[in-house]
Amino acid sequence: MDFRINEKRMVQLFCDLARITSLSGKEGAIARRLSILLKFMGAEVHMDDAGKKTGGETGNLIARFPGSAPGAPFLLSAHMDTVGPAENVRPQVSGGRVASDGNSILGADCKAGIAIILEVIKTLEENKIPHPPIEAVFTISEEIALLGAKFLDYSRLRSRCGLIFDNEQPLENVITSAPAADKMEIKVYGAAAHSGASPEKGISAIKVVSDAISGMKLGRIDAQTTANIGFISGGNAINIIPPLVELSGEARSHDPARLKKQTRHMEDCLRKAVKKIKVRADGKLLIPRYEFHVERKFPNLRIEKNNPVLALIAAAMREEGLTMKPSASGGGTDGNIMYGHGIKAPILSTGMRDVHTTHEYLDLKDFFACARLAVRIVGAARL
User: Which pLDDT band holds residue 31 (cuts at 50, 70, 90)?
Assistant: First the structure.
């Protein structure tokens, strides 16, 4: 396949997008800009109602491009939002990379992916490369629990496979596996009493929680599973036995069965700690209690080795002198949510590095190479 991407155009588009502030829930400006660009490129553009459901400025953007060859629609996706600090982003191009001026994030996560998608579509058209219909999806609020993908209007999509551009690993590493995650909100109730005058009449919720956490397996559980208690709050004053402690935590695993086991283990530790304590005060038997609420943050992602998109990626990499390496991620992306809706989309690296920091930068070599790979993949897709 003979073609050239327009590297200068890619860098200019990325820098233009990076200058647009688009924190999670505040993607209105970038959505308007992309809507104009996509329509100018010939797309049929829709905005869903995810913004109304999440309290954001805009919904997810869905753009359809007609195909010039037979085949099922092919998905290309990246998210529009960034983390902060993201006011007055000033991209600096130097030494084969783009960075901010050090006072903000750059926003390569995930505006590099957006720029790649637009360049891929332009390159396909300019070089008259036959391709199937393309469904380009630009989501909101990925950085806050993947909310955009969760509320994406999937009835508008026909794609069952595609590519997601949201990976900071080396270019050859293609994410094919990511864990499911359970979020836990926990409340432990004790009994208040004056800690100096009558401490024996109280039950310290902090003590109960301490006992429970000391029995929990946390951190790296096994090769596929992790767990963490990330927030603890409780107590009213230093002279009051604390009657309430609130905790937030999570467990993640690439194996849903192991995730269920870990979540159950953490609750069992709370149950055992609560059962250990009984206090009789003023003729009443006092026992602590707890509330344990679990929410599935996102399902797991698992792209099978025989998935046809992986074969396309491997072939494209060989043409670029690379070797595809299926890779696992410890975090979730829109790919997890889409996988739960029957869309299997591996995650490609875009050249973004040191994301979520003011040291973030975009490696232009991998940025351009990712675009070339994607052109080859979409041009060869006949699924």
Answer: very high
Residue 70's CB: how many other CB atoms inside 10 A?
Answer: 9
Peptide bond into 170 cis (omega under 30): no
Rg, C-alpha atoms of the chain: 25
Integer CA distances (angstroms), 224 to 98, 169, 233, 324, in order:
34, 18, 29, 22
CA distance 320 to 212: 53
Q: Looking at the DSSP assignment, which residues form a beta bridge with residue 39?
A: none
What is the residue whose two structure tokens read 């999806």?
A: 137
Q: What domains are defined for the chain?
A: 7-178+300-380 (3.40.630.10), 183-295 (3.30.70.360)
The catalytic residue positions are 81, 142
Burial 215-254 (b: 16+ CB within 10 A, else e): ebeeeebeebbbbebeeeebeeeeebbbbbbebebbbbbb
Q: What is the pLDDT of residues 190-208, one digit of tens each?
A: 999 999 999 999 999 999 9
3-state secondary structure the chain: CCCCCCHHHHHHHHHHHHCCCCECCCCHHHHHHHHHHHHHCCCEEEECCHHHHHCCCCCCEEEEECCCCCCCCEEEEEECCECCCCCCCCCEEECCEEECCCCCCCCHHHHHHHHHHHHHHHHHHHCCCCCCCEEEEEECCCCCCCHHHHCCCHHHCCCCEEEEEEECCCCCEEEEEECEEEEEEEEEECECCECCCCHHHCECHHHHHHHHHHCCCCEEEECCEEEEEEEEEECCCCCECCCEEEEEEEEEECCHHHHHHHHHHHHHHHHHHHHCCCEEECCEEECCEEEEEEEEEECCEECCCCCHHHHHHHHHHHHCCCCCEEEECCCCCHHHHHHHCCCECCEEECCEECCCCCCCEEEHHHHHHHHHHHHHHHHHCCC
- 328 near 346, Cβ under 8 Å? no
pLDDT in tens, 332-375: 899 999 999 999 999 999 999 999 999 999 999 999 999 999 99
